Structures are given as C-alpha cells and as structure tokens.
Amino acid sequence: MNSRQQNIPIVSSDDNIPSSSNNNNISLSFDCNIHDRVSNSENNSEVTVYDSTCTIGTLSRNIEVEDMHQCYNDDNSSSEAEDDKTVEDDSIDYVEARILTEYFEKLQNHIVKDGKQGPQEYDQKHNTFWIEPPSPFFALYSGPADPKKLYYPRVFLWSPHRLVTTVLKCPNCRQKLNSKGFNTNPRAHRVVDIDSCFYIMSSRYRCTNKSCKTSLNAYDNRILEQLPLHLQAEFPAYLTHRSAVSKHLGDLLRIVMQNGMGVHRLQRALREFHTLRHSRLHLQYLNSLVHRQQYPTFHDIPHGSNPIIYKRFSSFKDPEGYAGYIPSTRYLRLMYTALIDQLRPLMDKELAILDGIILKGDHSFKVPKHMAKLGGLSAFTALYTLCDEYEEIRLQLLVPTKSTTHLEAPLKEMMNSYHLYNHQQPDLFFTDNVKGDRRLLERSLLSLKRTLHTNNNHAHNIQQSTNVDLQKHPVPFLQLPSNVSISLIQSNDQVEQAVQAI
Prior knowledge:
Elements: E1 6-9, E2 25-30, E3 38-40, E4 46-49, H1 66-77, H2 79-84, H3 87-92, H4 98-114, E5 130-131, H5 136-139, E6 155-158, E7 177-182, E8 189-192, E9 197-207, E10 215-217, H6 221-224, H7 229-232, E11 237-239, E12 244-246, H8 247-258, H9 263-294, H10 329-352, E13 358-364, E14 382-387, E15 393-399, H11 408-420, E16 428-430, H12 434-444, H13 456-466, H14 492-501
Parallel strand pairs: 2-4, 6-9, 13-16
Antiparallel strand pairs: 1-2, 3-4, 5-6, 7-9, 8-9, 9-10, 11-12, 13-14, 14-15
Region (Disordered): 1-22
Domain DUF6729: 117-296
InterPro entries: DUF6729
C-alpha cells in the first residue's frame, strides 16, 4: 500500500450524517485515486468510499481525529523550545507563505486597477478598512474542493493619504510625501490576534526631496502622528520591527498581567484558541467532502480515466498552507513592557491629579525579592507606597534603602501637583516611624505643621471642661466620651479578667 494513502475519520453530528442504526461509520481516503463506487451496507449502515489502488477501512465515528490533533501535539512538544528562543529569533523566522503572497498580490493588483479612486473598500458602499475572506461555507460551496480558500486571512488596508485632506510631510525635511504603492517583500505585516492572525497591507511613501530620499511605511509612527486622532484610533495593532499584536490582544495582555495570570498562561491560551480555529476549519472541510460524496456535483464525478483527488488540509504550522503562528512568551513579555512604557505618562498623570487629606505611607520588602539581581545583589531593598484615605496609590517608588532621604524630592513634587490642581492640603499622615519620619514630613508637607483651628464655641467648651491654657496649648486635647472607662492592667490575672468581661 502506498505510504501516502491514509484513511481519515470524519467526526460530525447526527444532523450532518444520515443514521439508520446506532453504529454509523464513515471513512474517506485522501491523496489517492477514488472510484465512483460508493457502497452502503445495510447490515451496519456503513458508508465507505472504495479506492482501486489502496485498501480502505471502516472507522468508527467516535474515534478521535488523530490528524486534526497532530498539529496541536507538535506545538505542545515544541513549546518549551519556543520559550527558550530569543525575541529576535521569534520575529525573524517569519517568511511569507506562498499562498499568502499570491493572495496579497491579487489584492494589490485589484487595488491598483481602481486607480485614483482608491480602494473600493473606502467608498460609501463599503466604508471599511477590512478585506474579509469568503466564509468557509461559500468558499467550499462551488468549484473543486480546495482548502486553500480557508487559509486566507483578514487583511487591514491602510492607505491614510486617501483619507485626509492635508498633505503628509517628510519627518526629516518637511517636504511632501508621495505614495509609491504597496510593499512587495513582504507584501503585508503579520499581526497576531486572539484566535488567528490578520495582516496589514499598507502604502509606502517616499519624500519628494531628491536629496532626502526618506522612505516610510504608512504604519510608521511619524506618519500616524500626522493623522487626525479619530483616524489614528482605527489602526488595529501594536507593531514591533517584524511582528505585531492586535489591540484586542494587547488589552487582554494588560488584563492578564494585572490579575496575576502571567504571560506563560496567556501563551498557552493563545495556542488553544489558534489551534482550535484551525481544527474547526479542518473539520468543516472534511464534512464538506462527506457532503460531496453523498451529493456529488460535476467536480466530484470522475470523467474518463482522470481520477478525483481531494487535497489534504494542511497542518497548523505548514508554511505552504495554513501558516499558523503563536508568539513566544518572551515576545509577549517584551510587548507588555513596551505597552506599559507608552502608557506610563498617562498613568503618572492619573496619579498626579489625585488628592488626599489623610495620607498613609509605608515600606514593603516583598516586591524587590522578586526582581532581577545585579551580581547577586538587589538594586532596591524596598517599595515605598503612599495612599490616600480611599486607598488610592498617590505615590510609589523603589528605594535602595529605607532612609528618608530618597523620599524628600518625590514628596515635594507631589506637593507641587497639589498646588497645581488646587487640592486641599493634607492634614494627617500615618506612619509606623513617627519620630524618624517627623522632620522629613514637616519639611515636605508644610500643611502638617499648621495650627488646627476650631470654632470659638467648641474651643470655649473645651477650655471650660479641661481648664486648658490656650496660650500654652493652642491645640485642645482629645476628650474621651463619658461612657469610656480607663483601666490599668499590670498582671496576667487582670488580662484574663478583662478578656472574660468582653
């Protein structure tokens, strides 16, 4: 028997396969010559496609589809190796699949034919940036059975010069930029989404100044910054040099990190989503072949001596087929760091506009233990956090020692923001080292030194009840309620009696 000839079981629901008994079985043979003879066994309701050159067995419907899970097992076996790859290896090994290159070239040629009118996706009839592939059902509905159309990804078409009335300028010499068509190697930029990859097909611009010779892609930050903000918001990805992640995945990455799930678990979840989509398309393709055998069309009937050959659905990572891709954990970690670097000014601004009348500050020694060390020693010994009365973080910084000298400048900057936003000055500060922190707090937070004023009636009542000399003691003493009794406990027996009384 030819080693290429295999029997692939079909897993489907009872709605898709006619059932006249409890053990319906279906099998198909691919990459081999198929006769036009289909046998329906009345004894066990088996449907078997026979081949003249290979032996076809009958496989039960409840058997696992080994071929569909093979790509998942291969991915799992190489997951550790992928995690050990460098970030550079993770991005440089991308080579545009031949099927994708042909698909992108076809799209670009179609757009070029539109001429000055621009892509038809931008017109009032469509009003979209996206070029969507046909749905799997319609892709398999007519013509010969070919899984190639199921490999086509979504394409984001980005030609911003056709969407703005202003002229795009060179970031170096400020001269006009002209469009030079689309990129050709590669033709599109791959972007990893939650369950698949899509591609950005962008225009390329060149400076009209002959001495400048600047050339830019439309997704370059220096181009995006020239666009209106509401147009910038349409761009769907965060880009690195050779790869990218969608904004949806970037948002999910932030949520995952902030809730303690971790990058490694996210990478495993992405692997599950991506391979699950591949498996579902594979199953849909196999079910369409079953339907073609039950209800053959013109393309499913052999003519003369020419056999019918059904193409196999490619594996997940086949570079000449589906070309699936999942980024490594190291790349996701790098992407998260880059996202936070971009958001950090906004996060600092959010902290700066907070106020606080009652502040609480303390050092924590747990976080630095989980940080990388230099020469076996940690660069920081503590994380100082300052919160307001609503437990909102007002100030947070890593310090090399517990000395208060590292806090004086940040505290003064915090008070500058108080003055800038006209916040009420803090009146109270909680600390676990009052004697050691007093001088620092009085120098940095001047409002803590001001005299507490009360209304005259309240001060008069306090003066009468306590007979306090307000000239010597401008701040009245705190008075306990009359129903509170004070007991001095000096022995263990007194402690036990007090506890039993509670």
